[in-house]
């Protein structure tokens, strides 16, 4: 039931957005929408990589018998990811404040989040690929 509700809300939100050509957005509203879409795409990629890297860290925890009193691979990654999310959102809010209250603010925030999210995705991929 919750999944159906979420799907309906998402469909409703998408239907409410006007059609926008993100190759050449001509209005601030279009630029805001396109920046939001760019961030959403970056976030989907991050979530896909997160699933892989968290599974990898859990496997390392299962394969490793280190008893040094420190958190395991996954717990360390999870703590870092949670801290990174707070950093990303707070930092990007401060970038948005360059146009605080203005119509550009959402575009600045979404652009910042997209940029930082792509960088974090690359960092997480490095954890999967290491030491290859």
Please characterize this protein's 3D structure.
The N and C termini lie far apart (43 Å). With 132 residues, the chain is an all-alpha fold. The chain has helices spanning 2-16, 28-63, 73-96, 105-129. The longest helix is centred in the middle third of the chain and has 36 residues, at 28-63. α3 runs antiparallel to α4. The chain contains 4 helices and no strands. It has a single domain (28-63, 71-129), classed as Substrate Binding Domain Of Dnak, Chain:A, Domain 2 (Up-down Bundle).
Give the number of DSSP strands: 0
H-E string = HHHH
- Given helix and strand content, the structural type is mainly alpha
Please indicate the percent range of residues in DSSP E strands (runs of 2 or more): under 5%
What coarse outline follows from CA principal-axis ratios? elongated
- Helical fraction equals over 70%
Kindly give the count of domains: 1
CATH architecture: Up-down Bundle
Please describe the biggest sheet, giving its number of strands, its sense, and whether it closes into a barrel: none
Q: From the alpha-carbon coordinates, what is the Rg to the nearest angstrom?
A: 18 Å
What is the third-level CATH name, the topology?
Answer: Substrate Binding Domain Of Dnak, Chain:A, Domain 2
Q: Which CATH first-tier class would you pick?
A: Mainly Alpha
Mean pLDDT: 91
The number of helical runs is 4
Low-confidence stretches: none
Distance between the termini: 43 Å
């Amino acid at each position: 039931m919750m999944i159906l509700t979420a799907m309906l809300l998402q469909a409703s939100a998408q239907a409410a957005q006007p059609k926008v050509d993100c190759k050449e957005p001509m209005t601030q509203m279009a630029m805001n929408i396109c920046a939001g879409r760019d961030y959403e795409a970056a976030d989907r990629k991050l979530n896909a990589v997160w699933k892989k890297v968290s599974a990898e860290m859990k496997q390392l925890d299962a394969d490793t018998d280190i008893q040094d009193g420190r958190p395991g691979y996954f717990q360390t990654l999870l703590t870092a990811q949670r801290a990174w999310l707070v950093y990303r959102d707070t930092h990007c809010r401060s970038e948005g404040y360059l146009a605080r209250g203005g119509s550009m603010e959402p575009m600045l925030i979404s652009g910042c989040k997209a940029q930082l999210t792509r960088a974090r995705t690359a960092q997480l991929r490095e954890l999967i690929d290491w030491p290859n």
